[in-house]
Design a protein that fits this description.
heterodimer, A: mainly alpha, 2 domains, 6 helices, 51% helix, 0% strand, B: mainly alpha
C-alpha cells in the first residue's frame, strides 16, 4: 500500500474518532439535560396543580371584600351624611378623602370638613353613636337627650347625698392619735400571743 | 498522486480541525445547558414548596366570608340603632 493511502486512511480514522468522541459527549450531555428537564417539569406540574385554586379564591375574597367596603361606606354615608363621612375619613386618615368613596364618586369633589381638628377621634366616635354623646351633638336633627349645660349632674347623682345639696361645711375628718378628743379603750388581746387551741385526739 | 497528497494535506490540515472545532462548539453548548437546567429544576422545586401554603387560601376564603358576614350583621344592627343623617 502506498503511503498516500495510509495517510488517507489515518486522516479519515482521526475524523471518525473525533466525531465519535464529540457526538457521544453531546449525547451524554443531552441525556443529562433531559433528566433535569424531567425533574423541572414535575415541579412545574406541582406548581400548576397547587396554584390552580388561587385565582378562584382570590376572586371570591375580593368580591366579598368589595361587598364589605360597599356596605361600610354606605352605612357611614347613610348615618353621617356624605360631607361628614368624608370629614370623618379625612380626620382618621389624613389625605384619604382625596380618593373618596368607591360607591360615591361625587365624594371626591367634596371639601372635607376639619372634623378631626375640632374633636378627638374618641369624641367623634361617641358623637356619631347617638344623642347620648357627651358633647350632645350626635344628631343635629334631634334634641340632645342629655343636658348639655349640666352634663355632670347625672354622674354626680350616682354618689351618696352629701355633696349634692352643696352644704356650707362638711363633717371634719376624725382626729386620731394620743391627743384625739375621743379615746377608745384598748383591747387586751391586741398584741398578745395568740391563744393555742387544744390538741385534737387522733384515734 | 500529487492530487492525492494534496487531498491528504487538506483532510488533515483543514477538514479535521474544522470538524473538531464545530463539534467542540456543539459539546460546549450542550454542557453549558446542563447547569442551567439543574438550576431551573431547583427553582421549580422551591417554587412548588413555596406554594404548599396555597391550600390555606381556602381557609382564608372562608374567614373572609365569615368576617364580611359578621361585619354585615354589625352594619345591620348599627343601621337599626343609629339614626340616619
Amino acid at each position: 500500500m502506498e503511503a498516500a493511502g495510509v495517510i488517507t486512511i489515518l486522516a479519515v480514522l482521526l475524523i471518525v474518532l473525533a466525531l465519535v468522541y464529540y457526538l457521544v459527549s453531546v449525547i451524554v450531555a443531552l441525556r443529562k439535560i433531559t433528566a433535569g428537564l424531567d425533574k423541572a417539569i414535575a415541579s412545574v406540574g406541582e406548581i400548576v396543580e397547587k396554584s390552580a385554586p388561587v385565582n378562584d379564591v382570590v376572586m371570591t375574597s375580593n368580591e366579598n371584600l368589595d361587598a364589605g367596603v360597599d356596605l361600610l361606606e354606605g352605612l357611614l354615608v347613610k348615618k353621617a351624611g356624605l360631607t361628614d363621612a368624608v370629614g370623618l375619613v379625612e380626620g382618621l386618615y389624613a389625605g384619604a378623602s382625596a380618593a373618596g368613596f368607591r360607591s360615591f364618586p361625587e365624594s371626591t369633589t367634596i371639601k372635607a370638613p376639619r372634623i378631626g381638628e375640632v374633636y378627638t377621634q374618641g369624641t367623634l366616635t361617641l358623637a356619631r353613636l347617638g344623642r347620648e354623646a357627651p358633647i350632645a351633638a350626635g344628631n343635629p336633627a334631634g334634641p340632645a337627650l342629655r343636658d348639655v349645660e349640666r352634663g355632670s349632674l347625672a354622674a354626680r347623682q350616682l354618689y351618696p347625698e352629701i355633696r349634692q345639696t352643696r352644704p356650707d361645711s362638711l363633717p371634719r375628718s376624725p382626729v386620731i392619735g394620743t391627743d384625739a378628743p375621743e379615746q377608745y379603750e384598748q383591747r387586751d388581746d391586741i398584741g398578745a400571743p395568740r391563744k393555742r387551741l387544744p390538741a385534737r385526739d387522733h384515734d | 498522486m500529487t492530487l492525492w497528497w494534496i487531498g491528504n494535506v487538506v483532510l488533515l490540515v483543514v477538514v479535521l480541525p474544522v470538524v473538531v472545532y464545530l463539534l467542540h462548539g456543539v459539546l460546549s453548548a450542550a454542557k453549558a445547558i446542563v447547569p442551567s437546567v439543574h438550576e431551573i429544576g431547583a427553582a421549580a422545586a422551591a417554587g412548588s414548596k413555596d406554594l404548599d401554603a396555597a391550600a390555606l387560601l381556602l381557609t382564608t376564603q372562608e374567614q373572609v366570608t365569615q368576617t364580611i358576614a359578621v361585619a354585615a350583621n354589625y352594619g345591620g344592627s348599627l343601621d337599626v340603632i343609629l339614626d340616619d343623617a
